[in-house]
Amino acid sequence: MASRAGPRATGTDGSDFQHRERVASHYQMSVALKSEIRKLNIVHLLMWVLMAAQVIVSQLSLVSHKTVATPYQWEYPYLLSIVPTVFSFLALPRNNISYLVISMISAGLFCVAPLIYGGMEMFPVAQQLYRHGKAYRFIFGFSAVSVMYLVIVIAVQVHGWQIYYSKKLLDQWFTSTQEKKKK
Q1: 80-93: pLDDT as tens digits
Q2: Is the separation of the CB atoms in 52 and 79 below 8 Å?
Q3: Are 172 and 33 in contact (CB under 8 A)?
Q4: Per DSSP, which regions of 35-108 are E strands?
Q5: What is the three-class DSSP state of 138?
Q6: For residue 92, what are the CA distances in angstroms to 34, 97, 100, 159, 176?
Q7: What is the model's pLDDT at position 5?
Q8: Residue 72 · residue 145 · CB < 8 Å
């Protein structure tokens, strides 16, 4: 037993720690992956709030369309991307494999698919901006297509890492359940 105060056990110089128990590597990896997924979920949540704010402000005409552009068509289905994040948050505390799988599948459907469609939808507008320097939609003075392409680039990275880390976490959970079944 370790003692915070008092004499050290006789016959030891402190170098006999090799035999002590350690936390299994898959548990350490699980904790690290959960932390990364939580960080990515928070970043996605912030992006989702900003996009929802843009859609709400535009639909309720709270600000002129010159200040905040009307949303592109892909932004409406992208608002459903909150679903995978909710399932991900629900899966992490209790290692719920079903919720994590639902989160991964719905991330492809509700997150990545609208982003791909958005890239294709905005391409002609971006091409016109690049060739002629003309923009017709603005978000706080910036070209809306440029801002939304920046959002797409960030969102693709966030969702890609979410899916990657979720897959790695799922593998870790399966490893630990397989080891328990063998015992």
Answers
A1: 999 999 999 999 99
A2: yes
A3: yes
A4: none
A5: strand
A6: 7, 9, 8, 17, 15
A7: 65
A8: no
